[in-house]
Write a structure and sequence with these properties.
about 30% helix; seven-stranded parallel β-sheet; alpha/beta; binds zinc ion; about 725 residues; six-stranded parallel β-sheet; 22 helices
């Protein structure tokens, strides 16, 4: 008898598979199917085929449709998702379906949007660029690019400008260009690779060591100071691996904003290998198309944010994780996985190398390197020999007169840069005008009613806004508590700093980069273009600016008010601050100009600043790890949180108390702490609490979590709250 029972994963919050009859249709493992579920139909993935079922056969329903034209998801990917779902205590079906592009969760065959390429017509070839009006800048650039090459795909056009596709269509309307349909968004341009820079000794050694061992699992920690040329090492490794036939490389980056630059660099150096990106800024059809190119093995280089770690890649031979310490690799809802940790598991199972790169590795990774679990490679020199390390100084804000929050030293340094026509960057990790609205009569501070947080003043829009839940209200005319009209925006945010600078330095051209100023698509790219074209003198921004961007003419970095992170109850806050400040300091003086960094603080003697002044990550990491070991914090112990929230705290408390007692009874190897409230007690109108579990053995913790979750699922007390397990949590 043929196997006719299909085990199907569905996007439902139950940790089990569902049995269906094949109904005479042929469905392979990994294939997408449509099945009846309750009164609706749902998309599912076949993960097993069997002859028997635990349920009565006559009660099973047949599947409705097999999407037989689509490639099935390979076993390696299914197994990886299964492992992750188990490890992070999340239902497998939900984990699997949410790892797919949105189009594959919809009830329709997954057809990619047609891709087009453009070329000049005979008429267009006779044309001079002057025939296109000067103000149509992009049209001109596209025209010139078309003239320089035979064919440009949409992917090529995207590199020219975000509006290049529109420009190409206009050229078609004019009759100067024609379009044709092509297979893939791969680059058609046959270009010579850009010139290879020479490697310095450290880079060469790193490349040599990794390539010697490139056909088996090894985790490499590439610790390289900012500007030491980590990307060049990645490129050489990719070259080495890609020249083996069909092999694929996955490059993870922490932020969508960083993909275009890295993409451009990879394309120019590895022009003959097709490259796709995968991140949430792509349209649904683009993402599907890129995903399918990766899945079919057509795309050889895949560059993406954390979600791309679950992409099926039939010939994956190398994984690179850039800025491996970045907390955005950790998913903070649904399946709370850490893409770096999943990548390590994936590499090990595939027996391929994985390279973790960072100037400030996560303490977990550094610990693994010192314990010889990872192989450490260091890049201590800047790649451009002329480039100097920036000079870093801390200014004690309690000892000088501040002018609107700025020290005289910083103002003088800014003026000097303006006179020399060099650029400056001011880093302040708080967007908005000012962090609080204060009544000077009764000290009332505008709170968010839905969160345990203060409302941030956005003066331009005359609004108060909560940065946690998005709540928005008008700035009141008088204090709601005492009726006094004397309400003051207190403290500095990016908007206020921008305003202050405009007053102090009226000739300076200032740009602000934060989530508000870059919410429009391409806004960030436009600002960065202006910076590169020397149309900006001073950049004011949040951590968005700290990462990756290279500004050769930027010689001054000012850091304003980061002191709150020095004394945060979150034990990881100082680790994050150190990484952030190292990154932001690295922005100064990257080319042949020496950089200066001025940090305004009330605690200039803090150990963190001492390490920063000497750019000494190693000493800092050692001190931090010693501290963690003494108090038994990660990476010396393994932790997990049981998080719960509800409208009514009594329900949360009841649930957590029950879970706490249950967890205690289930294991004597795991330390279970009393239920407590997190830093943000209330968020988006929900009352929150959690139970922390800690163990020196990972298997012991995993065993407890498994038992705990299976016993909690389906309990009435658990149905009254929203709860989730967070393994290796980053936020408390
Ligand atoms: Zn008041
Ligand atoms: Zn709020």
């Amino acid at each position: 008898m043929p196997k006719s029972i299909l085990k199907i994963a569905l996007d439902v919050p139950l940790n089990r598979l569902f049995d269906y009859l094949s109904g005479g249709q042929v469905a392979k493992v990994g294939q997408r199917v449509l099945v009846p579920f309750g009164r609706r139909s749902q998309i599912g993935i076949v993960v097993g085929v069997a002859e028997t079922s635990d349920f009565a056969i006559e009660k099973l329903k047949p599947i409705m449709q097999v999407f037989a034209d689509e490639l099935p998801i390979n076993a390696e990917t299914l197994n990886l998702v299964k492992f992750s779902a188990d490890y992070y205590q999340y239902p497998f079906g939900q984990a699997l379906l949410s790892a797919l592009p949105a189009r594959l969760r919809q009830i329709a065959p997954a057809v990619s949007r047609k891709q087009y390429a453009y070329q000049l017509t005979d008429l267009g070839r006779q044309l001079d660029v002057e025939a296109i009006p000067k103000r149509q800048l992009v049209n001109r650039r596209v025209f010139l690019a078309l003239r320089a090459s035979n064919l440009l795909t949409e992917a090529d056009l995207d590199e020219i400008s975000s509006s290049a596709r529109k420009a190409a269509k206009q050229l078609v309307i004019e009759g100067w260009a024609s379009s044709l349909q092509v297979q893939a968004t791969v680059r058609t341009l046959e270009t010579q690779p850009a010139v290879e820079p020479e490697l310095n000794q450290e880079q060469a050694l790193a490349v040599a060591r990794i390539t010697q061992d490139s056909q088996s699992f090894k985790a490499w920690l590439l610790h390289g100071i900012t500007g030491s040329g980590k990307t060049e090492v990645y490129i050489r490794l990719m070259q080495h691996v890609l020249h083996r036939s069909d092999s694929q490389v996955l490059v993870l980056v922490p932020e969508i904003n960083l993909t275009p630059q890295l993409e451009a660099r990879f394309r120019s150096r590895l022009p003959n290998f097709s490259l796709v990106s995968l991140h949430s800024n792509l349209s649904e059809s683009e993402r599907l198309h890129h995903w399918q190119l990766a899945q079919s093995g057509t795309a050889r280089i895949i560059i993406g944010t954390r979600l791309s770690i679950f992409t099926p890649l039939p010939n994956l031979k190398l994984i690179i994780i850039d800025e491996e310490h970045d907390s955005s690799y950790k998913q903070q809802d649904s399946m709370r996985y850490h893409a770096r940790d999943v990548a390590l598991v994936r590499a090990k199972r595939l027996n391929i190398p994985v390279v973790l790169g960072s100037a400030t590795p996560a303490l977990e990774s550094w610990h693994n390197a010192t314990a010889n679990k990872y192989n450490l490679l260091s890049l201590n020199q800047r790649a451009v020999t002329a480039a100097q390390l920036p000079h870093i100084e801390c200014i004690d804000t309690t000892k000088v007169n501040l002018q609107q929050g700025l020290t005289p030293q910083l103002i003088t340094a800014l003026k000097l840069r303006l006179a020399r026509k060099e650029q400056s960057l001011l880093f302040i990790n708080r967007r908005g005008y000012s962090p609080v609205l204060l009544c000077s009569a009764c000290h009332w501070i505008a709170p968010c009613m839905r969160c345990s947080s203060k409302l941030v003043v956005h003066l331009g829009q005359r609004k108060l806004r909560c940065h946690h839940c998005g709540h928005e209200q008008k700035i009141p005319n008088q204090c709601p508590s005492c009726g006094d009209a004397d309400l003051h925006p207190t403290g500095h945010g990016t908007q206020r700093l921008e305003q202050t600078l405009a007053q102090l330095l009226p000739t300076a051209r200032i740009a602000r980069v934060d989530r508000d100023s870059t919410s429009r698509k391409n806004a960030l790219v436009e600002i960065l273009d202006k910076v590169h074209n020397q149309e900006i003198d001073i950049l004011v921004g949040t951590q968005m600016l700290a990462k990756g961007h290279d500004f050769p003419n930027l010689t001054l970095v000012g850091v304003i008010d980061t002191d709150s992170a020095l004394h945060s109850p979150d034990f990881r806050a100082s680790e994050r601050l150190f990484a952030q400040l190292m990154q932001v300091a690295g922005r100064a003086g990257r080319a042949d100009k020496a950089g200066q960094v001025i940090i305004q603080t009330q605690f200039p003697e803090h150990v963190l600043f001492n390490a920063l002044r000497t750019q000494d990550y190693v000493t800092y990491a050692k001190a931090m790890l010693q501290e963690r070991e003494q108090v038994q914090f990660p990476p010396y112990v393994f932790t997990a949180l049981l998080r719960a929230e509800a409208n009514d705290f009594a329900l949360v408390h009841q649930f957590l108390q029950h879970a706490f007692e249950l967890a205690r009874s289930l294991s004597d190897k795991v330390l279970v702490y009393d239920p407590v409230r997190p830093q943000m007690e209330r968020l988006k109108g929900m009352e929150r609490g959690h139970v922390l579990m800690q163990a020196s053995s990972r298997p012991a913790l995993q065993q407890l979590l498994k038992n705990l979750v299976s016993q909690l699922r389906g309990k009435t007390i658990a149905a009254k709250v929203r709860w989730a397990v967070d393994v290796n949590p980053l936020e408390f």
